Amino acid sequence: MSDTLRRIAVIGGSRIPFCRSNSAYSEKSNMDMLAGALQGVIDRHGLHGEKFDEVIAGAVTTHSRDWNLAREALLSTTMSPLTPGITLQQACGTSLQAAAMIGAKIACGQIECGIAAGTDTTSDPPITFGPKFSKRLVKAGTARSAKARLKAFKGFSPGELKPVLPANGEPRTGLSMGQHCERMAQEWGIAREDQDTLALESHHKAEQAYNEGFYDPLVMSWGGVMRDNNIRGDTSLEKLGTLRTVFAKGSDATLTAGNSTPLTDGAAAVLLASEDWARAHDLPVQAYLTATRTASVDFVGDEGLLMAPTVAVAEMLQQTGLTLQDFDFYEIHEAFAAQVLCTLAAWESEDYCRDRLGLDAPLGAIDREKLNVKGSSLAVGHPFAATGARIVGTLAHLLEEKGSGRGLISVCTAGGMGVAAILERP
């Protein structure tokens, strides 16, 4: 352990291409994809056989077989099998929270290096039976005679075989994330056209970034796929404007499939380390993780479900003494275009910043030219637990290309939570 806090170096990220649900990865599992992303980090940095101090990774949509996901996935790679694996889940903030946890341990000298990662698939959902039939199976499985096994099915009804699909809603409200975000859009007066414009920009920026080779070191070929298959470089406001709303009906509804992230399969990972470890392995540092913050909102009490990043960022800025304008890049996860626009509107609102954030003045506006400059989740997709690692890897690469600077990360999550972070390159 160190008596003084050490700097947390971001060495670099790697991910497999993100693909729309039930497309290229329809036969792949969370473990397959996570192992692929972890292997990408190993390959990119020439670390075959290396023992890492920790791998912290997770997924949101999981099977019971995924109970030891991080450890099992790393055992499918060429890193040392002596590497511990820790499985974590914090909805869409999973891999960013994993980076924060690894970073804290590096800073205090508990560990020297670690990989933060996430994976998710909605092509391979955990479909189960209801509790009544499940209990019958347990009783039958523990029965000691054929008669006892048959007795477990006494009174059986074919209706008990109806499959139970993963719930697409908040347990406390029964509303989906999209329905909650539609309510946020109404509260903040976010227009449909503004949402479509943000989505259009995301697709065009991502398409250009691929064409310019920005993603070449970040995205590995995997599963027969070379690049994210959701990007629509040829889309237009006219095309987006023809899509129907999906989370509410009526003339006031604004959220569509075009300005909302699609269900996506994929995985991402990022390597963090101490400066000493990086030097010992002759690896350049792309950026430094200098601050993180997690916050929650009372969405059951009618706060916006996806507004917690406004709180996390505000608290993080207070801790660091920075202003919202002190950044060269803003990486705000695009769960929905409306969520990004609500967040920006809240930071500009005198009432919200005073009454909810406890500030004397609004945080203010950002330079939109610095927002998600290489595209974000609306374009590349959003495998829930993988998005944080994707963003850290993208932002670190951006800062390395620029030579110096500072970037802000903001990720909203299910359950009314938000995770924020700052990366810097002196």
Which SSEs are present, and which pair or pack?
Blueprint: E1 8-15, E2 19-20, H1 30-45, E3 55-58, H2 69-74, E4 85-87, H3 94-107, E5 113-120, H4 131-142, H5 146-151, H6 177-188, H7 192-211, H8 237-241, E6 264-273, H9 275-280, E7 287-296, H10 308-320, E8 329-332, H11 337-348, H12 350-355, H13 377-380, H14 387-402, E9 405-413, E10 417-425
Parallel strand pairs: 3-4, 3-5, 8-9
Antiparallel strand pairs: 1-6, 1-7, 2-6, 5-6, 7-10, 9-10
Helix pairs in contact: 3-14, 6-11
Spatial gap, N to C terminus: 25 Å
Q: Could you tell me the radius of gyration in angstroms?
A: 22 Å
Shape: globular
Weakly predicted, low-confidence segments: none
Mean pLDDT rating? 97
Structural class: alpha/beta
- The SSE order reads EEHEHEHEHHHHHEHEHEHHHHEE
Written overview of the protein:
The chain has 426 residues and is of the alpha/beta class. Helix content is 35%, strand content 16%. It is built from 14 helices and 10 strands. Strands 1, 2, 3, 4, 5, 6, 7, 8, 9 and 10 form a 10-stranded mixed beta sheet that branches.
What tags apply to this protein structure?
426 residues, alpha/beta, 10-stranded mixed beta sheet, 14 helices, 16% strand
In short:
Helices cover 35% and strands 16% of the residues. It has 14 helices and 10 strands. The protein is globular and about 75 Å long.
